[in-house]
Design a protein that fits this description.
With 426 residues, the protein is of the alpha/beta class. It folds into 2 domains: 248 residues, Aspartate Aminotransferase, domain 2, CATH 3.40.640; 153 residues, Alpha-Beta Complex (Aspartate Aminotransferase, domain 1). It has 15 helices and 12 strands. The strands form 2 sheets. A 7-stranded mixed sheet has the order 1-7-6-5-4-2-3, sandwiched between helices. Strands 8-9-12-11-10 form a 5-stranded mixed sheet. α1 runs antiparallel to α3 and α4 packs across α9. The chain is globular.
Length: 426
């Protein structure tokens, strides 16, 4: 829908409504039936009163819902609510977080353009930018998440995009959003930030200069691991300009049902993030005291290299994801692993598998953002398709374990991990 046409009605909300209020109230006005809970519009198309009106609507001369690949009331309610929480002019919903990144690059870049990207981003993001878009002539350079000099040195005359994920997955490295935004803009480029780990409940990247915000709604926005969803937030001129044009043609659309599920998940986002982050802080502090743990990665800990920066950027909160590395296992190596792993790496892998396999509460899955605590081995799951060299460059060893902390009682979570840590032969 064209951004220069009359806007569809908005809910009558106070202009100074806070994020918790927007999370339960922003969207579209109720229908003539006066429903209190947002309606779910399961329809692929919409009727028009006559052929001339249909023609005007398809030509963007009149704003209306046309076809659910790119316009649907339920999806628009989710988009408006998320944009309000992120503090952006607009948002466009996508079928997954990866499809949001796909939409960003397809709508923004062309062959010959260059991307500077953190080497600590999600493994599939690296693959998409480096391999898939590389086939179409988009160049990329991967740099340290936290070393600003590497970002500066990577800039070329054709650099059009900086891409960062903060905190990163799974090391929870925190980049300086304001510094990267200033650097990108000075080079004539845009900055996109993946805000999946923090969500707008803890961090709003555009307030620190970012141009675009990426979300995997599959994670904390939904909050209960039910559906796949994604979103791209940014200025209206881009969302309802090149991104909408790309969406109409490429169709990485979010289904109305999934939009409705995530829309309802946003209502409890702030209280979930607060409770899960509090649990994560306690768990991280406990893990630092365990003999079998080599290192804990959590921005809420004073030992984290970017602790002070994280506290400024993330509303004084460390988030709900904790990663830690275990010490290598002693004795015989029995765990299977890729042929290119040396014995030291296999011993780390064996120790990590031991801790994971002894849990009884934690769900062994590579997702995150659920109310249930999830545990995974990044080197063999989320980052398993990368080479060992790429993993090590990003700091991901075979001994690393990532925990997305849920809402269980903290004492039960500690006892669950202690089953493996206390019996670890190191």
């Amino acid at each position: 829908m064209s951004s220069d046409k009359k806007k569809l009605p908005r809910k009558d909300l106070p202009g100074d409504a806070r994020i918790e209020t927007l999370a339960v109230r922003e969207g579209l006005p109720a229908t003539q039936w006066g429903e209190n809970s947002e309606a779910l519009f399961l329809t692929s198309s919409f009727n028009h009163p006559d052929a001339a009106t249909a023609a005007a609507r398809f030509a963007n001369e009149e704003e209306a819902f046309v076809y659910s690949r790119f316009t649907n009331p339920t999806t628009m309610m989710f988009e408006r609510r998320l944009a309000a929480l992120e503090g952006t002019e607009a948002a466009i919903a996508t079928s997954s977080g990866m499809s949001a990144i796909l939409l960003l690059i397809m709508g923004l870049l062309k062959a010959g353009d260059h991307v500077v990207c953190s080497q600590s981003v999600f493994g599939s993001t690296i693959t998409l930018i480096q391999r898939e878009f590389g086939k179409f002539g988009i160049e990329s350079t991967f740099v340290s998440q936290t070393d600003l000099s590497e970002w500066q040195a990577a800039i070329r005359p054709n650099t059009k995009l900086f891409f960062a994920e903060t905190p990163s997955n799974p090391l929870t490295e925190v980049c300086d959003i304001r510094a990267l935004a200033d650097m990108a803009h000075a080079a004539g480029a845009h900055l996109a930030v993946d805000n999946c780990f923090c969500t707008p409940a803890l961090q709003q990247p555009t307030k620190m200069g970012a141009d675009f915000v990426i979300h995997s709604g599959t994670k904390y926005l939904d909050g209960q691991g039910r559906v796949l969803a994604g979103a791209l937030c940014g200025p209206d001129s881009f969302v309802n300009g090149p991104f909408m044009a790309t969406m109409r043609g490429a169709g990485m659309s979010l289904s109305p049902f999934n939009a409705w599920v995530v829309l309802k998940g946003l209502e409890t986002l702030s209280i979930r993030m607060a409770a899960q982050s509090a649990n994560a802080t306690k768990l991280a502090q406990w893990l630092e005291q365990q003999p079998g743990v080599d290192k804990v990665y959590y921005p809420g800990l004073p030992s984290h290299p970017q602790h002070e920066l994280a506290m400024r950027q993330q509303n004084g909160c460390g988030g709900a994801v904790v990663s830690f590395s275990v010490k290598p296992a002693a004795g015989d190596v029995t765990v299977p692993g890729p042929a290119n792993l040396d014995e030291a790496s296999l011993r780390l892998r064996q120790a990590a598998f031991h801790v994971i396999d002894h849990t009884r509460l934690c769900s062994i899955t590579s997702n995150l953002g659920d109310t249930k605590t999830l545990i995974t081995h990044p080197a063999s799951t989320s980052h398993g398709r990368l080479t060992e060299e790429q993993r090590l460059a990003a700091g991901i060893t075979q001994g690393m374990i990532r925990i997305a902390v849920g809402l269980e009682h903290i004492d039960d979570l500690q006892a669950d991990l202690a089953r493996g840590l206390d019996t670890l032969n190191v």
